[in-house]
Amino acid sequence: MSLTIKPAEGAGAYIGGIDLSILSSQEAKQLLDALGQYGVLFFRQQSLSPESHIELAEKFGSININRFFTAVEGYPQIAQVLKEPDQKKNIGEQWHTDHSYDQVPALGSILVARELPQSGGDTIFVSMFAAYDALEDKIKKRIANLTAVHSSRHVFGADAQKEANQEGEAPRFKNAAAATQDAVHPVVIRHPISGKKGIYVNPDFTVRINDVSEEESEVLLSTLYDHCLNLAFRHQFSWQPGSVAFWDNRATWHQAINDYHGQRRLMHRITLEGEALFA
Ligand code: SIN
User: Fold this and answer.
1) Which atom of ligand 1 is nearest to the CA of 121?
2) 152 CB under 6 A from ligand 1?
3) How many A from CA of 214 to the centre of ligand 1?
4) In order of start, what are the domains of the chain with their CATH numbers?
5) SS3 sequence of the chain
6) Ligand 1: distance of its center to the CA of 188 in Å?
7) Which atom of ligand 1 is nearest to the CA of 96?
8) Is the pTM of this model over 0.90?
9) 176-206, pLDDT tens digit by residue?
10) 256 touches ligand 1 (CB under 6 Å)
11) Of 78, 80, 81, 248, which is best to mutate to test ligand 1, by the most ligand atoms within 8 angstroms of its C-beta?
12) Which atom of ligand 1 is nearest to the CA of 254?
C-alpha cells in the first residue's frame, strides 16, 4: 500500500492507501507534512479501537486531556462528542478553531466516527490558508501586525455550561471554574509545519483585536469572518462508518452541522498539544 493524497474541494485532502491502526513513523511524518499543507486530512474505512486511536495520536505528539469535555468512560485521553436523540443542541455548531483561548493552542484533533445518524451530521471545514491568500492586499496590510484576544470564559464558563448541560441529561461539559484562560495571538500566523500564512481569529473564541478601537475591532472581525465563510474555502465532510478526520487548529475552522434531531451521533476526539504561534 502506498499513501495517496487527493486535495479536496475547498479545504483539506483525502488520504488513501493507509491503515491508521498500524501507521509507520515514515507515514506519520508524511501525514504531518500533508496536514501542514492542507489543514485537514480525511480518511475512510479505518478500524480504530479506543486503544489504537490513542496509539495513533501519540505518534504525533502528547495528548491534551480536555479540561471541559466529558471523557469516554475508561479513556481520559478521549473526549466524548455526543448528541442524544432527545437533545436539541450539539457540540461545535458555532464556527471555531479549538483551543485558541490557550496561550499554547492545541495542534489539532483526530475525530473518529462511532455512531452516526441515518443522514446529516456532517462537519464543515474552512481553510484559513485559502482565506488568507484570497484577502485583498489592503486588508492583508491592515492586519499584518495585529494581535487578538481569545477567551474560553463565554463558551465554557458557568453561564455557558448551564445552558449546554441540560437538566436531567449527562453533562457534556465540566470544570467551569477552569474557564479563565485569555490568550493573545497574532491575527495572521505562520503555520508551524508548512510556514504558510493563515488567518487566526474565529467567531467562537476571539473576543477582540488589540490596539484598535472597539468599533474597528468589530468591523475588522466581521469583515474577516464574512470573507472566511466564502464557499470557495469550505469542504463539507460526510461521515461514514470508519471515517476519521485529522484537523489542524492552526489552519482551519470547523462547524458540526446540527441537522439530525431525534437521532444519536457519537464521536471520539483526541486533541494533540501544540506550540506557541507567531506572525
Ligand atoms: C468539534 O467541534 O470538535 C466536533 C466536530 C464534530 O462533531 O463534527
Assistant:
1) 8
2) no
3) 31
4) 4-272 (3.60.130.10)
5) CCCEEEECCCCCEEEECCCHHHCCHHHHHHHHHHHHHHCEEEECCCCCCHHHHHHHHHCCCCEECCCCECEECCEEEEEEEEECCCCCCCCCCCCECCCCCCCCCCCEEEEEEEECCCCCCCEEEEEHHHHHHCCCHHHHHHHCCCEEEEECHHHHCHHHHHHHCCCCCCCCECCHHHCCCEEEEECEEECCCCCCEEECCCCCCEEEECCCCHHHHHHHHHHHHHHHCCHHHEEEECCCCCCEEEEECCCEEEEECCCCCCCCEEEEEEEECCCCCCC
6) 24
7) 2
8) yes
9) 677 677 899 999 999 999 999 999 999 999 9
10) yes
11) 81
12) 2
The tens digit of pLDDT for each residue in 96-152 reads 999 999 999 999 999 999 999 999 999 999 999 999 999 999 999 999 999 999 998
